[in-house]
Write a structure and sequence with these properties.
about 350 residues, mainly beta, about 10% helix
Length: about 350
Protein backbone atom coordinates (compact mmCIF):
# COMPACT_ATOMS: atom_id res chain seq x y z
CA UNK A 1 0.00 0.00 0.00
CA UNK A 2 1.27 3.48 -0.75
CA UNK A 3 0.06 7.00 -0.03
CA UNK A 4 0.44 9.59 -2.79
CA UNK A 5 -0.44 13.17 -1.77
CA UNK A 6 -1.76 15.61 -4.37
CA UNK A 7 -1.57 19.36 -3.90
CA UNK A 8 -3.66 20.35 -6.93
CA UNK A 9 -7.23 19.39 -7.88
CA UNK A 10 -7.48 16.56 -10.39
CA UNK A 11 -11.22 16.07 -10.81
CA UNK A 12 -13.73 18.78 -9.91
CA UNK A 13 -17.23 17.61 -9.03
CA UNK A 14 -19.60 20.42 -8.07
CA UNK A 15 -17.80 22.37 -5.39
CA UNK A 16 -15.59 19.50 -4.24
CA UNK A 17 -12.01 18.71 -5.14
CA UNK A 18 -9.68 15.77 -4.66
CA UNK A 19 -7.17 16.18 -1.87
CA UNK A 20 -5.57 12.74 -1.67
CA UNK A 21 -5.32 9.34 -3.32
CA UNK A 22 -4.78 5.87 -1.85
CA UNK A 23 -3.85 2.76 -3.80
CA UNK A 24 -4.35 -0.81 -2.59
CA UNK A 25 -4.68 -4.21 -4.30
CA UNK A 26 -5.61 -2.75 -7.64
CA UNK A 27 -8.39 -0.53 -6.26
CA UNK A 28 -7.95 3.23 -6.32
CA UNK A 29 -9.85 5.18 -3.68
CA UNK A 30 -10.30 8.95 -4.10
CA UNK A 31 -11.24 11.05 -1.07
CA UNK A 32 -13.00 14.32 -1.81
CA UNK A 33 -13.14 17.20 0.62
CA UNK A 34 -16.12 19.51 1.01
CA UNK A 35 -15.98 23.28 0.88
CA UNK A 36 -19.36 23.96 2.47
CA UNK A 37 -20.11 25.84 5.64
CA UNK A 38 -22.74 23.41 6.92
CA UNK A 39 -21.49 19.84 6.65
CA UNK A 40 -18.22 17.97 6.32
CA UNK A 41 -19.62 15.70 3.61
CA UNK A 42 -18.52 14.16 1.42
CA UNK A 43 -15.82 11.97 2.96
CA UNK A 44 -14.34 8.61 2.05
CA UNK A 45 -12.12 6.19 3.97
CA UNK A 46 -11.35 2.50 3.65
CA UNK A 47 -9.95 -0.61 5.30
CA UNK A 48 -8.97 -4.02 3.96
CA UNK A 49 -10.50 -7.02 5.71
CA UNK A 50 -9.48 -10.38 4.30
CA UNK A 51 -10.22 -10.27 0.59
CA UNK A 52 -12.61 -7.34 0.88
CA UNK A 53 -12.28 -3.60 0.70
CA UNK A 54 -14.62 -1.77 3.10
CA UNK A 55 -15.50 1.79 2.08
CA UNK A 56 -16.97 4.16 4.66
CA UNK A 57 -18.33 7.34 3.12
CA UNK A 58 -20.74 10.23 3.27
CA UNK A 59 -22.34 11.78 0.20
CA UNK A 60 -22.91 9.77 -2.99
CA UNK A 61 -20.55 6.92 -3.86
CA UNK A 62 -19.32 6.87 -7.47
CA UNK A 63 -17.10 4.41 -9.30
CA UNK A 64 -15.10 4.46 -12.51
CA UNK A 65 -12.83 2.24 -14.55
CA UNK A 66 -10.68 5.13 -15.82
CA UNK A 67 -11.14 7.96 -13.25
CA UNK A 68 -12.74 10.03 -16.03
CA UNK A 69 -16.22 8.59 -16.57
CA UNK A 70 -18.11 8.13 -13.31
CA UNK A 71 -21.33 6.29 -12.42
CA UNK A 72 -23.22 6.16 -9.13
CA UNK A 73 -23.00 2.92 -7.17
CA UNK A 74 -26.68 2.02 -6.95
CA UNK A 75 -28.59 0.58 -3.98
CA UNK A 76 -25.80 0.85 -1.45
CA UNK A 77 -25.13 2.54 1.84
CA UNK A 78 -22.10 3.11 4.02
CA UNK A 79 -20.15 0.97 4.82
CA UNK A 80 -19.85 -0.61 1.34
CA UNK A 81 -17.99 -3.91 0.87
CA UNK A 82 -16.40 -5.01 -2.40
CA UNK A 83 -14.19 -8.01 -3.16
CA UNK A 84 -10.58 -7.26 -4.05
CA UNK A 85 -9.47 -8.25 -7.55
CA UNK A 86 -6.88 -7.44 -10.20
CA UNK A 87 -9.36 -5.18 -11.98
CA UNK A 88 -8.65 -1.51 -11.41
CA UNK A 89 -11.60 0.45 -10.09
CA UNK A 90 -11.77 4.01 -8.88
CA UNK A 91 -14.12 5.21 -6.14
CA UNK A 92 -15.02 8.68 -4.97
CA UNK A 93 -17.59 10.35 -2.76
CA UNK A 94 -19.46 13.24 -4.32
CA UNK A 95 -21.44 15.96 -2.59
CA UNK A 96 -23.09 19.28 -3.22
CA UNK A 97 -22.90 22.81 -1.87
CA UNK A 98 -25.48 22.31 0.87
CA UNK A 99 -25.24 25.91 2.07
CA UNK A 100 -27.29 27.02 -0.91
CA UNK A 101 -29.98 24.43 -0.21
CA UNK A 102 -31.28 26.25 2.86
CA UNK A 103 -34.71 27.68 2.04
CA UNK A 104 -37.16 30.30 3.30
CA UNK A 105 -40.90 29.66 3.02
CA UNK A 106 -43.27 32.67 3.06
CA UNK A 107 -46.18 31.95 5.41
CA UNK A 108 -47.79 35.38 5.33
CA UNK A 109 -46.77 38.81 4.10
CA UNK A 110 -44.24 39.33 6.89
CA UNK A 111 -43.85 35.87 8.45
CA UNK A 112 -41.38 33.39 6.99
CA UNK A 113 -40.22 29.90 7.89
CA UNK A 114 -36.44 29.34 7.61
CA UNK A 115 -35.35 25.76 6.93
CA UNK A 116 -31.80 24.38 7.14
CA UNK A 117 -30.80 21.54 4.83
CA UNK A 118 -29.45 18.50 6.72
CA UNK A 119 -27.25 16.10 4.76
CA UNK A 120 -27.77 12.35 5.25
CA UNK A 121 -25.12 10.55 7.28
CA UNK A 122 -24.19 8.17 10.06
CA UNK A 123 -23.76 9.08 13.74
CA UNK A 124 -23.70 7.57 17.21
CA UNK A 125 -27.03 8.16 18.93
CA UNK A 126 -27.27 8.11 22.70
CA UNK A 127 -24.65 8.96 25.33
CA UNK A 128 -21.51 7.34 26.74
CA UNK A 129 -21.91 5.75 30.16
CA UNK A 130 -19.72 8.35 31.83
CA UNK A 131 -21.69 11.40 30.58
CA UNK A 132 -22.83 13.58 33.46
CA UNK A 133 -26.58 13.35 34.02
CA UNK A 134 -27.02 10.33 31.74
CA UNK A 135 -30.16 8.16 32.00
CA UNK A 136 -30.38 4.41 31.32
CA UNK A 137 -32.52 4.89 28.20
CA UNK A 138 -29.65 6.50 26.25
CA UNK A 139 -27.77 3.37 25.12
CA UNK A 140 -25.36 4.27 22.33
CA UNK A 141 -26.01 2.75 18.90
CA UNK A 142 -25.10 3.60 15.32
CA UNK A 143 -27.78 5.27 13.22
CA UNK A 144 -27.66 5.90 9.47
CA UNK A 145 -30.01 8.41 7.88
CA UNK A 146 -30.04 7.75 4.14
CA UNK A 147 -32.08 10.75 3.01
CA UNK A 148 -31.49 14.44 3.50
CA UNK A 149 -34.16 16.67 5.00
CA UNK A 150 -34.82 20.27 6.00
CA UNK A 151 -35.26 21.25 9.64
CA UNK A 152 -36.58 24.49 11.10
CA UNK A 153 -33.80 26.94 11.90
CA UNK A 154 -35.79 27.92 14.98
CA UNK A 155 -38.56 26.47 17.10
CA UNK A 156 -41.94 27.35 15.59
CA UNK A 157 -42.80 30.84 16.78
CA UNK A 158 -46.22 32.11 17.74
CA UNK A 159 -46.35 34.29 14.61
CA UNK A 160 -45.66 31.22 12.46
CA UNK A 161 -48.19 29.17 14.39
CA UNK A 162 -50.89 31.80 13.94
CA UNK A 163 -50.12 32.03 10.23
CA UNK A 164 -51.30 28.43 9.85
CA UNK A 165 -53.62 27.73 12.79
CA UNK A 166 -56.83 29.51 13.87
CA UNK A 167 -55.73 30.28 17.44
CA UNK A 168 -52.64 30.53 19.65
CA UNK A 169 -52.75 28.54 22.91
CA UNK A 170 -49.41 29.86 24.21
CA UNK A 171 -49.08 31.02 27.83
CA UNK A 172 -46.03 33.22 27.19
CA UNK A 173 -47.27 35.57 24.49
CA UNK A 174 -45.10 37.22 21.85
CA UNK A 175 -44.83 36.92 18.07
CA UNK A 176 -41.21 35.73 18.10
CA UNK A 177 -41.44 33.64 21.24
CA UNK A 178 -41.70 29.90 20.63
CA UNK A 179 -45.24 28.55 20.47
CA UNK A 180 -45.88 26.78 23.76
CA UNK A 181 -48.62 24.70 25.37
CA UNK A 182 -48.77 22.70 22.13
CA UNK A 183 -49.80 19.04 22.22
CA UNK A 184 -48.34 16.45 19.88
CA UNK A 185 -51.67 16.38 18.05
CA UNK A 186 -51.60 20.16 17.70
CA UNK A 187 -48.08 20.07 16.28
CA UNK A 188 -49.07 17.34 13.82
CA UNK A 189 -52.13 19.32 12.72
CA UNK A 190 -49.88 22.32 12.05
CA UNK A 191 -47.63 20.13 9.86
CA UNK A 192 -50.62 18.70 8.00
CA UNK A 193 -52.08 22.13 7.22
CA UNK A 194 -48.69 23.54 6.22
CA UNK A 195 -48.18 20.62 3.83
CA UNK A 196 -51.59 21.28 2.24
CA UNK A 197 -50.87 25.01 1.86
CA UNK A 198 -47.42 24.53 0.38
CA UNK A 199 -48.62 21.79 -1.98
CA UNK A 200 -51.38 24.07 -3.26
CA UNK A 201 -48.84 26.87 -3.72
CA UNK A 202 -46.55 24.59 -5.75
CA UNK A 203 -43.65 24.97 -3.30
CA UNK A 204 -43.58 21.44 -1.93
CA UNK A 205 -40.68 19.30 -3.23
CA UNK A 206 -41.95 16.08 -4.80
CA UNK A 207 -42.02 13.22 -2.31
CA UNK A 208 -41.62 15.54 0.70
CA UNK A 209 -44.02 16.65 3.43
CA UNK A 210 -43.93 18.73 6.59
CA UNK A 211 -43.79 16.64 9.74
CA UNK A 212 -42.24 16.44 13.16
CA UNK A 213 -38.67 15.13 13.06
CA UNK A 214 -38.07 11.55 14.05
CA UNK A 215 -36.09 11.23 17.24
CA UNK A 216 -33.04 10.19 15.22
CA UNK A 217 -33.40 13.16 12.86
CA UNK A 218 -33.68 15.48 15.85
CA UNK A 219 -30.55 14.21 17.63
CA UNK A 220 -28.50 14.01 14.43
CA UNK A 221 -29.35 17.63 13.62
CA UNK A 222 -28.88 18.78 17.21
CA UNK A 223 -25.42 17.26 17.47
CA UNK A 224 -24.22 18.61 14.10
CA UNK A 225 -21.23 16.29 14.25
CA UNK A 226 -20.50 16.66 17.98
CA UNK A 227 -20.29 13.78 20.46
CA UNK A 228 -20.43 15.89 23.61
CA UNK A 229 -23.33 16.59 25.97
CA UNK A 230 -23.99 19.95 24.29
CA UNK A 231 -23.78 20.80 20.59
CA UNK A 232 -21.24 23.51 21.35
CA UNK A 233 -18.65 20.74 21.69
CA UNK A 234 -18.67 21.05 25.49
CA UNK A 235 -19.72 18.73 28.30
CA UNK A 236 -21.56 19.70 31.48
CA UNK A 237 -19.53 20.89 34.46
CA UNK A 238 -22.54 20.41 36.74
CA UNK A 239 -25.81 18.47 36.37
CA UNK A 240 -28.05 21.34 37.40
CA UNK A 241 -26.44 24.78 37.14
CA UNK A 242 -23.98 24.74 34.28
CA UNK A 243 -22.23 27.79 32.73
CA UNK A 244 -21.82 25.85 29.49
CA UNK A 245 -25.60 25.96 29.08
CA UNK A 246 -25.62 29.75 29.21
CA UNK A 247 -23.99 29.84 25.76
CA UNK A 248 -26.51 27.67 23.96
CA UNK A 249 -29.90 27.77 25.64
CA UNK A 250 -32.44 29.11 28.12
CA UNK A 251 -32.83 26.76 31.09
CA UNK A 252 -33.80 26.84 34.78
CA UNK A 253 -30.88 28.94 35.98
CA UNK A 254 -30.91 31.69 33.34
CA UNK A 255 -34.52 31.89 32.11
CA UNK A 256 -36.32 33.47 35.06
CA UNK A 257 -38.93 30.75 34.38
CA UNK A 258 -40.10 32.05 31.02
CA UNK A 259 -39.39 31.53 27.31
CA UNK A 260 -37.34 33.92 25.18
CA UNK A 261 -37.23 35.12 21.58
CA UNK A 262 -35.90 32.37 19.33
CA UNK A 263 -32.36 32.67 18.01
CA UNK A 264 -30.80 34.62 20.91
CA UNK A 265 -28.26 31.97 21.92
CA UNK A 266 -25.34 30.40 20.07
CA UNK A 267 -26.38 28.18 17.11
CA UNK A 268 -24.83 24.79 16.44
CA UNK A 269 -22.42 24.15 13.57
CA UNK A 270 -25.29 23.65 11.11
CA UNK A 271 -27.00 26.93 12.00
CA UNK A 272 -29.81 25.57 14.21
CA UNK A 273 -30.84 27.58 17.27
CA UNK A 274 -32.38 26.64 20.62
CA UNK A 275 -31.89 22.89 20.31
CA UNK A 276 -31.05 23.11 24.03
CA UNK A 277 -33.69 24.67 26.30
CA UNK A 278 -36.41 27.29 25.76
CA UNK A 279 -39.20 24.75 25.04
CA UNK A 280 -39.29 20.97 24.79
CA UNK A 281 -39.70 19.86 21.16
CA UNK A 282 -42.05 17.10 20.05
CA UNK A 283 -40.70 14.29 17.88
CA UNK A 284 -42.66 11.94 15.65
CA UNK A 285 -41.79 8.74 17.54
CA UNK A 286 -43.49 6.80 20.25
CA UNK A 287 -41.23 6.70 23.30
CA UNK A 288 -39.59 3.28 23.70
CA UNK A 289 -36.32 1.40 24.21
CA UNK A 290 -33.45 1.98 21.82
CA UNK A 291 -32.32 -0.86 19.51
CA UNK A 292 -29.28 -2.87 20.58
CA UNK A 293 -27.54 -2.77 17.18
CA UNK A 294 -26.99 -0.42 14.25
CA UNK A 295 -30.15 0.80 12.48
CA UNK A 296 -31.03 2.68 9.30
CA UNK A 297 -33.73 5.37 9.15
CA UNK A 298 -35.33 4.39 12.49
CA UNK A 299 -38.87 5.49 13.31
CA UNK A 300 -38.92 4.58 16.99
CA UNK A 301 -41.17 2.15 18.82
CA UNK A 302 -44.13 0.71 16.91
CA UNK A 303 -46.58 1.69 19.65
CA UNK A 304 -46.76 3.22 23.09
CA UNK A 305 -48.56 5.66 25.36
CA UNK A 306 -46.11 8.59 25.18
CA UNK A 307 -44.51 10.54 22.34
CA UNK A 308 -40.90 11.67 22.50
CA UNK A 309 -39.94 15.21 23.52
CA UNK A 310 -36.38 16.50 23.25
CA UNK A 311 -34.10 19.37 24.17
CA UNK A 312 -35.29 20.46 27.61
CA UNK A 313 -36.89 23.80 28.40
CA UNK A 314 -36.70 27.03 30.35
CA UNK A 315 -37.84 25.02 33.39
CA UNK A 316 -35.20 22.27 33.03
CA UNK A 317 -31.93 21.63 34.81
CA UNK A 318 -28.89 21.42 32.55
CA UNK A 319 -28.77 17.63 32.28
CA UNK A 320 -32.29 17.50 30.84
CA UNK A 321 -31.13 19.77 27.99
CA UNK A 322 -28.32 17.47 26.76
CA UNK A 323 -28.23 16.32 23.12
CA UNK A 324 -28.90 12.72 24.18
CA UNK A 325 -31.57 13.32 26.81
CA UNK A 326 -34.97 11.91 25.90
CA UNK A 327 -38.34 12.03 27.59
CA UNK A 328 -41.86 10.97 26.74
CA UNK A 329 -45.26 12.43 27.49
CA UNK A 330 -48.85 11.85 26.49
CA UNK A 331 -49.55 13.23 23.01
CA UNK A 332 -52.70 15.02 24.15
CA UNK A 333 -50.82 17.01 26.81
CA UNK A 334 -49.95 20.60 26.01
CA UNK A 335 -47.52 21.76 28.67
CA UNK A 336 -46.55 25.39 29.15
CA UNK A 337 -42.93 24.62 28.21
CA UNK A 338 -43.62 22.32 25.26
CA UNK A 339 -43.43 23.38 21.60
CA UNK A 340 -41.94 21.99 18.38
CA UNK A 341 -39.96 22.62 15.23
CA UNK A 342 -40.84 21.20 11.81
CA UNK A 343 -39.00 19.11 9.33
CA UNK A 344 -39.54 18.92 5.57
CA UNK A 345 -38.75 15.26 5.02
CA UNK A 346 -39.35 12.45 2.54
CA UNK A 347 -42.82 11.00 3.04
CA UNK A 348 -42.65 8.24 5.67
Amino acid sequence: MCYLPFQEPIERMGVFYMNNLKLTAGLLVLALTGMTAQAEAPSLSYEVTGNNLILTYTGTLLQSADAVNWTEVQSTSSPYKIALSDKKLFFCAKGEDTHNKDITIPLTGNVNLDLIWIEPGTFTMGSPEDEMGRFDDEAQHEVTLTKGYWLGKYEITQAQYRAIMPSNPSEFTGADLPADTISWYGAMEFCKKLTEIEKAAGRLPEGYEYALPTEAQWEYACRAGTTTALNSGKNLSDKEQCPEMDEVGWYYYNSNYKTYLVGQKQPNAWGLYDMHGNVWEWCLDWYGDYPSSAVTDPKGASSGSSRVVRGGSCYSYAYYCRSANRSGTRPDNGYIDCGFRVTLSPVQ
